[in-house]
């Protein structure tokens, strides 16, 4: 007979890390684990868990979003290490389309996510980030330091954004401290088919005219990926197809999967779409663009990046037809040309006025007090981002005299306008060959921006850590180090209002055309104030 008392049943243990472990026997080692929840990601990433790729089996462990906030079934968004072998992690739609990447690991941080760095004064005091690449696997993980009492988690949200949250005991709530990508509408397919994504609207997704939510219940729970469906079917497949008409949408960014066809005019382009039962929209700007089947990633447009698109609808969705239709089409074209001419004229006048206004200020040799609209214009509505850090994002701009500048949008400022202008004035008077020069600023309510000289060779970390960058010679590295030291010495001992930087790192060292170094962000302590501990806990100014 078998002694059943000597046989132990498997035991499930919930560890302090949040890992649910099933062991063959209680109080056994980790090698005796039958199953653990850390081996099966859902939508949540806890400290100590690995976002990994097994080099021998090819298995990639990835996080997958919920379908919606009330349904834990797998959604369409996921995050994983790059299966190509690049040392980065990527966000995907439908396991196929990459819509965001972290950039490669530099040994301390990812190039596209400098804020998630173990040396960053905001996160580094609490977290340790680690990227491991050995013979068996590649993985990225993070841990909370032992002396820090903090509960944190990472989540791939139903909106397609990767978010990091920390539990605030005093508020008894989770607080978001990191999210990517920054722009809501850059998430591929977030709003589904026949829906428009609006970056600045409270509701990011809205159905186009003539369409309604495919799944209203999921829509209310935050899952818009099912998109919208037609209220009335098209009259395709018979002579009635001619009854289908088009609703024009202006100032939009075009959907994906566009096809270019031969058409000599806007009328020919419309006929091309009407003659194909799968065609759902067209646009004409000298070239005929058509879209077949679902429209994906239609967005609100801005300025020169926007255009008009004609959405195909059943005739009953739009008023009248026949002769009125022709008059309506002609009226749209003629009216559009008139409006376009008027807008172009105003734009030219506005440009000349802004050019004269800005040029006069620069001739004074003092800091330029920009208006926010000026900087929107000069940066093409902040369309070309040069980088991002703890204090905000930096965008490329071009002044009317063709001078290239870097425009930084500051985040988290608590100062009043008078104090902000005083501190900016102090920093603007500090000039040294190894310090980045402040050219101007903007202060309109909560909108605070700084305008710096542009550094064509970017930041030092790009040349030290990017695998694609040319190897920097040791004499050049030595000269850069000397230049950095001279800039810091001037800040500490030679300028009238001395400043301690406290955040020196390769990302804050910029290189000009001849690779001469310039220390950047040296005035952030004065601008942000001593109590801005959430961004830079160890920063001080004296």
Automatic annotation (TrEMBL):
Domain Protein kinase, residue spans: 380-542
* Gene Ontology BP terms: recognition of pollen
Which EC numbers does the record give?
2.7.11.1
Which is one Pfam family of this protein? Answer: S_locus_glycop
Source organism of the structure = Zizania palustris (Northern wild rice)
Tell me, what is one Gene Ontology molecular-function annotation carried by this entry?
protein serine/threonine kinase activity
GO CC terms for this protein?
plasma membrane
Stated name of the protein: non-specific serine/threonine protein kinase
Matches recorded under PANTHER family: OS07G0415500 PROTEIN, RECEPTOR-LIKE SERINE_THREONINE-PROTEIN KINASE
Q: What is the top EC class of this enzyme, as a single word?
A: transferase
Q: How does it sit in the membrane?
A: Single-pass type I membrane protein
Which catalysed reactions does the entry list for this protein?
L-threonyl-[protein] + ATP = O-phospho-L-threonyl-[protein] + ADP + H(+); L-seryl-[protein] + ATP = O-phospho-L-seryl-[protein] + ADP + H(+)
Q: Which InterPro entries match?
A: Bulb-type_lectin_dom, Pan_app, Prot_kinase_dom, Protein_kinase_ATP_BS, S_locus_glycoprot_dom, Ser/Thr_kinase_AS
Its transmembrane ranges are: 327-352
- Give compartment(s): Cell membrane
Entry keywords, A to Z: ATP-binding, Cell membrane, Disulfide bond, Glycoprotein, Kinase, Lectin, Membrane, Nucleotide-binding, Phosphoprotein, Receptor, Serine/threonine-protein kinase, Signal, Transferase, Transmembrane, Transmembrane helix
Binding site residues for ATP: 409
Any idea where the Apple domain is?
236-314
Q: Which PROSITE patterns match?
A: PAN, PROTEIN_KINASE_ATP, PROTEIN_KINASE_DOM, PROTEIN_KINASE_ST
